[in-house]
Amino acid sequence: MSVRELWISGYRSVHALRFELAPVTVVVGPNGSGKTNVYRSLYLLHAAARGEFAHTLAEEGGMPSALWAGARKKTETARVTVGVRLEDLAYELSCGLVPPPQGSFMLDPDVKEETVWVHEGTRRHVVAERRAQSVFARDAEGRRTTFAAKLWGHESLLAQISEPHRFPLLSALRAELLHWRFYHHFRTDPESPLRHEQVGVRTPALAHDGRDLAAALMTIQEIGDTRAMHDAVTRAFPGARLELDSEEGRFSLHLHMPGLGRPLGAAELSDGTLRYLCLLAALLSPRPPAFLALNEPETSLHPSLLEPLARLIADASRRGQIFVTTHARELATALEKNTRAALLTLRRTGGATELSEEEDTD
């Protein structure tokens, strides 16, 4: 199911934002405009389905750090709300601070409301609703079921109600959100796992931090589009050749560069080269996700790599929906040209992230 619409309110720099998503959506704007907050809001939905909602917010400093930091009206409640509409299903989650007495976990989120509904034309039918710890859901026959047991306040109902045969729509929604894939940062320091040999496990989907890069590339070579992988390397590094080695079940990669007497191992490659190879592995996955999100993939890349990266993203968009945030106008323009991407420009006005129709000149 493709993602049709996203709405966010009360989350960090986003006071209120709502927009439609296309097969390829590119969110562009200068540093500090709120691009990562939009990306993270999508990840919050994924984390809610995984049962890691509280843990994800804890990585951001806890619930108080996630709340809108600007001025509020007297009647405005301090809450984070994130919602998404898929083809025929929609889901919204709203959370706030833990009410007193807070106990030891005062930085946890407290889920205040959740709603799941089905769209039928202009009408919508609620199939599950949560108000604090009171929850009802409609089963496969449409019967309303109220749950007597209290849910954990810090996690979503999607992660706590797991009865696929009884509640197939909830199960379908959770499965859809779980299959989303996110890439934000690839660790490339000298101790990074991707710079060293790796145990050879079949890896159809690159890990979020790229730690299994050699195994993911070897998997593409064996069961994926090998030609596309090597073509992408040649486009990015003219005259170069990627070599993947397996010795006693351990994988490693080498890059043959023109003019050099020996290939360069992963430990010797630049940060930008390694990050490009990670993006290549993510975008050429033999098992592509229905929805793939990239946050500022141009980080550490030389401008000459933006056109090859745009080509990779364009090819991946034929297999699934793509969401990209970037502050590189060159990448946004290339994606708009190659994929007819929907281009959304963000700006900060009075501290709040807003959509802008003005040309971004940063």
TrEMBL record:
ATPase AAA-type core domain: from which residue to which, for each copy? 24-58, 157-327
Domain of life here? Bacteria
* InterPro entries documented for this protein: ATPase_AAA_core, P-loop_NTPase, RecF-like
GO BP annotations, alphabetical order = DNA synthesis involved in DNA repair; double-strand break repair
A Gene Ontology MF term for this entry?
ATP hydrolysis activity
Output this protein's name: Recombinase RecF
Q: Which organism is it from?
A: Cystobacter ferrugineus
Species lineage, top-down?
Bacteria, Pseudomonadati, Myxococcota, Myxococcia, Myxococcales
